[in-house]
Specification:
InterPro entries: P-loop_NTPase (IPR027417), Sulfotransferase_dom (IPR000863). It is an enzyme of class 2 (transferase). It is globular and about 50 Å long. The chain has 13 helices and 6 strands. The chain has 297 residues and is of the alpha/beta class. Bound molecules: adenosine-3'-5'-diphosphate. The site of adenosine-3'-5'-diphosphate (A3P) has 21 residues, from α2, α5 and α12.
Length: 297
């Protein structure tokens, strides 16, 4: 099933995905052989995936690269940390690395079995629905799809509320990872974009701890956590030459700058009226009920 000109298709597991990715995603589900040293970064699109990729890359490779020598100075995070559908052909993935980091937008229940039978760890980053939606809408406006969607934001919101967006429904994906993080806290770490904005340092330390590679006292004393936070900040990454308009991503048909728009909490207020916002709020209340999950922003 297609939704207007967004080229989304309903995966048999019940989530919407880009039509061109359906086969690669199914192939990943069926064939991916996860190893114990895998680290999977999971998100809804536009929830801060780029940021999480940069942070996780910096945390796990901190023995290999100093912050000043980080490949993030010359490559976009999406060129350093692949998505699951880009893994095929990366046979030499473990060369010289202790950890293998990659990302997914797939729901928890749809991940390959090997993810669960291996010791692979999952870091899930969520963002409040209004900012995620507004960010997604902008991204589609800038994307270089075959057909450029030109939706009024209200029309896009109607689709969002029906769960029809990349990897939607939003609430189903988030609930899946939220529940898993409560049930298997050693397997799934659940973090929020808003907490990263508020106190990135603490979240970075929590991620490192969860990955069983906590910062040593010496590293902390030397300010390594702060350096990583600074390197991966919106200001820093978006001002890198490689992330300027016109620098095309090696893995996507987009210019690297589209992954950096505003990077703020609460920007939705500039795009959605109070009626729209309350439609989203009441749906989220209905869906998340007393799960304990709340959103800020
Ligand atoms: P906005 O459109 O609200 O600015 P993703 O990486 O999942 O595609 O999400 C993109 C969103 O994260 C965009 O949000 C983008 O600006 C924001 N973002 C990207 N890098 C960031 C960073 N280093 N710090 C904070 N936000 C960042």
């Amino acid at each position: 099933e297609k939704i207007m000109n967004w080229s989304l298709i309903l995966h048999e597991d019940g989530f919407w995905c880009p039509e061109r990715l359906l086969r690669p995603l199914i192939s990943f589900q069926r064939n991916y052989d996860s190893k114990d040293n895998d680290i999977l970064l999971a998100t809804m699109p536009k929830s801060g995936t780029t940021w999480l990729k940069a942070l996780a890359f910096s945390i796990v490779n901190r023995d290999i690269y100093s912050v000043s020598q980080s490949p993030l100075h010359t490559s976009n995070p999406h060129e350093l940390v692949p998505f699951e559908f880009q893994l095929a052909g990366q046979r030499n993935r473990d060369e010289g690395r202790d950890y293998h980091v990659f990302a997914t937008h797939m729901p928890y229940a749809s991940l390959p079995d090997s993810i669960f039978s291996s010791k692979c760890k999952i870091v899930y980053l969520c963002r409040n629905p209004l900012d995620q939606f507004v960010s997604d809408w902008h991204f589609h406006e800038q994307m270089c799809w075959d057909v450029k969607p030109e939706f009024a934001i209200e029309d896009a919101l109607d689709l969002f509320l029906q769960g029809k967006q990349n990897y939607g429904p939003f609430w189903e994906q988030i609930q899946g990872y939220w529940n898993a993080s409560l049930k298997f806290p050693g397997k799934v770490l659940f973090i929020k974009y808003e907490d990263l904005k508020k106190d990135c340092r603490s979240v970075v330390k929590r991620i490192a701890q969860f990955l069983q590679m906590p910062f040593a006292e010496e590293e902390e004393k030397n300010g390594l956590v702060e350096q990583i936070v600074k390197l991966c900040s919106f200001e820093s990454l978006s001002n890198m030459e490689v992330n300027k308009p016109g620098k095309w991503n090696a893995n996507f048909r987009v210019s690297n700058n589209v992954f950096f728009r505003k990077g703020e909490v609460g920007d939705w207020i500039n795009y959605l009226n109070p009626t729209s916002a309350s439609r989203v709020a009441s749906l989220m209340k209905e869906k998340f009920g007393d799960s304990g999950l709340t959103f800020e922003g």
